[in-house]
Structure formats: C-alpha cells, structure tokens
Amino acid sequence: MENSKQMRKWLDDMNLSHPLVIAGPCSAETEEQVLKIAHELKDTDVNYFRSGIWKPRTRPGNFEGVGAIGLKWLQKVKEETGLKTATEVANKAHVDLALEHDIDLLWIGARSTVSPFIVQEIADALKGTDKIVLVKNPVNPDLSLWLGAVERLYSADIKKLGVIHRGFSTYEKTKYRNIPEWQLAIELQTKFPDLPIINDPSHITGKRDMIFDVSQTALDLNFDGLIIETHCDPDNAWSDAAQQVTPKTLIQIMKDLRIRKETDEEAEYNNNLSNLRAQIDILDNQLIDLLGKRMKVSDGIGELKKQKNVAVLQSNRWNAILGNMILEGEQRGLSEEFVLRMFKAIHQESINHQEKIINS
C-alpha cells in the first residue's frame, strides 16, 4: 500500500485530544432506544455513534437486526445530537443504503473479512467514497487475509481506511470471548504504522467487567481508539447483552483510562517504554497459560503411569528433552545456564503433579 500515510490523514484531521471513541448499542432495537442512548452519549468523548442495523448471526432464528428502517433512526441521531454515525455493512445492498442515508463511518465485520469475494463486492460498491471504512480482523488469526481486505479497499481508491482488532475465535475455553492475540495486532502496527487501529474490547471480552482492562492494554500498545458497545439497559439487550455497558459506565471508563498527553521527547520515551512493557505483560500471560496447559498434559501422563505402575522419573526421556531445549534455546539467543534452570524448574513441577496423582 503506497502512500499509506494518506490513511492516517482522516484521523489526524480530527485533531482529537483523546483516542477515537466509537460507541452505541450492539443492535438498533427501537427508535426510542437508539435516540435515548445517543442523547446520553452527546457531549462526551464519543466521536461516532455506532449501531448494528443488519446482524449476521451464527444460527438462523435469532434477532438479525431491524434492517433499513434503523438507518433512518441513525439519521435522527445525527440531526438531534450532532454525533456522526457508524454501522456494519456486509454486501453491496447494505453499502448502497448506508450511503443513501449518509452514514459517516462503515465497518466490515469479521465474518465478511474472511471472504475476498465479499470484500471485493463491498470495495466496488464503495469505490471512490470519502467515507471512513474500517476493517475488522477475520475470525481466524490470519494477518495476510486482514491486510488483503485493506488492500482491496485501497485499490478501490478508498483512502480513509483503518482496522478494528476484535480478537480471534478459538475452540479453547479462555476468559475471553475472542482471544486478543495481541502479537498479531502488534505485527500489523509494525508493518503499517500509518494504518489507524481501533480496539474492540466488547467482542474480545464478551463480558462488560473486563472491558476497562482490555481497553487500557490497547491504549498502552498505542492503539488509536476504541469501539465499545453501549446500551441504556444492557441486561435486556436483544443481542450480546453480557458485553454491553451503560452510557454512565462508558463515561467513567473514559475518565479512568490512563492516556498520556505529553508531546516532548520524554513523553515519547515513556510511550515507547509503556508499549514494550505491555508487550511483555502479554507474553508473560501467554507463558503462564502454556505452562498450565503443559501441566495438564503431565497430569495425563501421571494417570497413565499410575495405571501401568511405572516410575515417575524417566531419565532417558528427561535427558533428551533437556538436550533438545538447550539447542533450541541457543538458536533464540538464550544461554545454556538459563535454559537448564528454567526446564529443571518445569520438570520438577511436572514430577510434583505426577507424584500427586500416583500417590492419590
């Protein structure tokens, strides 16, 4: 993507004193609901009022959005509050209707990003528009697919571009609805530092009480903004009730987030240091998660050894592991002393797990 600095211009032109904030309900439900939320978000840090009009659902039969009538409600939001508007589009018909109703910002959802055919259809429908277009990451952690969608839009002469990081689907049970895979977002930032990146803590967490922490991590990693689902009565929302916050809670989150505003060299140093520390925190959490998974495997080995009355310590196996890990460590710049100390500690914890099972 040549001249990628053009993509950041729309954000720079806003001259914001805080990160970009896109907020509003997961789904437009009624005109009254949409306008009530919008009026509560008026005169806050919110820059764009978002609302789902068409809701792609995993299984049919669930609420799939109010459809085009919701676009008229978004027009009223702009008329009554002055807030700019945003919604998701998934095909040419959605694009045409959104442009007809002068929606200011459009985003392409994770289910659409996985299909180059869908993205190309949307890009063709948007060709030459001056609207802001954001691309959510695909449901699977595929950086090339994500960037490919951006490139298709850029090739359609759409210059006001950005991406939304909403996490990635996984079969594993984790504390997240969609695992962040922060390293992939960091890689994207490294390759394309001029591409605005917005974090979606609502879809990453799936739980409103985790939104602040994920938002803070995103800001520490120099994300440009947040898109947070906000509802006047979250518990009774027609979709994604658990991950929506009230306007009052959103306003408090904005107040509590630590946002560095310095502009001198010291501020740049602190910003870079904060970014690197945030990356270390993420990697440390991944290490703990992997070690926990390793010990579960060790528990399974302990069960098998108990059934066959086999000794816990298998010296040949242990020596082979240690030799392999020393070689692997050398290739990654890790000293033999460090690898030995680390794997001896891991091995001892594994022995403790297996002995506990065998002696139970």
Automatic annotation (TrEMBL):
GO biological process: chorismate metabolic process
Pfam family, one: CM_2
UniProt keyword Transferase present: yes
Keyword DNA-binding in record: no
Residue stretches making up the Chorismate mutase domain: 267-358
EC number(s) given by UniProt: 5.4.99.5
A GO molecular-function annotation: transferase activity
Class of enzymatic activity (EC top level): isomerase
Keywords: Coiled coil, Transferase
Protein name: chorismate mutase
Species this chain originates from: Flagellimonas alvinocaridis
